[in-house]
Amino acid sequence: WALAEVKAAFTLRHASAMLGKGPEYGGSNPEPLTSTPEYLEYNPTGLVPTLIIEGEGSKPSQGIFESATIVRYIARKYDADGEVFKCSTPEDEARASSWMDYCGGNLSDTGGQIPAMVNHSTRLAEKDRDPAKLAEAVVGFSKRLGLLEEQLAKTQAFVAGQEFTVADVPVGCVVNRYIVAQLVLKERHPEQPLDGKVDTPSIEAWHERLKERPAFY
User: Fold this and answer.
1) pLDDT tens-digit profile of 28-61?
2) CA distance 162 to 125
3) Which residues is 65 bridged to in the sheet?
4) For residue 27, pLDDT beyond 90
5) In angstroms, rounded to a whole number, what is the distance separating the alpha carbons of residues 215 and 204?
6) Considering the chain, what is the average pLDDT of its residues?
7) Looking at the predicted structure, is the pLDDT value of residue 91 above 70?
8) What's the CA gap between 139 and 23, in Å, rounded?
9) 18 — pLDDT class (breaks 50, 70, 90)
């Protein structure tokens, strides 16, 4: 998404461990790409995402991992003047980075809620999806969104203020999983209750604004 925002050329390769397990998961590789020595050379955590920067010739020279770090690199590399991400000064970057790091520490690591939302909404084979587990994850995740909801109610625009910044990318990616999970429940399992779910109208309005961006996907 960030690369598309700055119109940088790139090749996207799915490396999800689940997508590597076979056709029932949408993939065909017998082993997950993330467990190969080649992948671990660039990302020793064995997780996604990884941005591989091509060196001279055809051999990649460097791997960058951790979502916030990748987005910050893209902004500095391709948007130094801040035309897209509005982070041309240290102060602008710091304001946005605060929310990026908050997301990494408080929203991304949610005790299994995000993997549950992804697995039981889209990733697992249909027969293995459990709407009750999906609903439980949505309800639990909604309770973590209080501070973000307050911030977006305050700005009425984007995460770090009135303009789109690097903060909106990693936070938006995480929240998108929550939005998609709710849509799946509404469309496929309308009978599944969401008892205890916290309403997040400002977050949902912000997500609609993100969807208006051509690069968003």
Assistant:
1) 444 668 888 989 999 999 988 999 998 777 665 7
2) 41
3) 50
4) no
5) 18
6) 89
7) yes
8) 30
9) very low
If we measure between CA atoms, which residue out of 118, 114, 74, 96 comes closest to residue 164?
Answer: 96
Helix segments in 61-167, DSSP class H: 67-78, 90-106, 113-118, 131-142, 146-155
Contact of 43 with 50, CB cutoff 8 Å: yes
Burial of 108 (0-12, 13-18, 19+ CB in 10 A): middle
- CB count within 10 Å of CB 90 equals 9
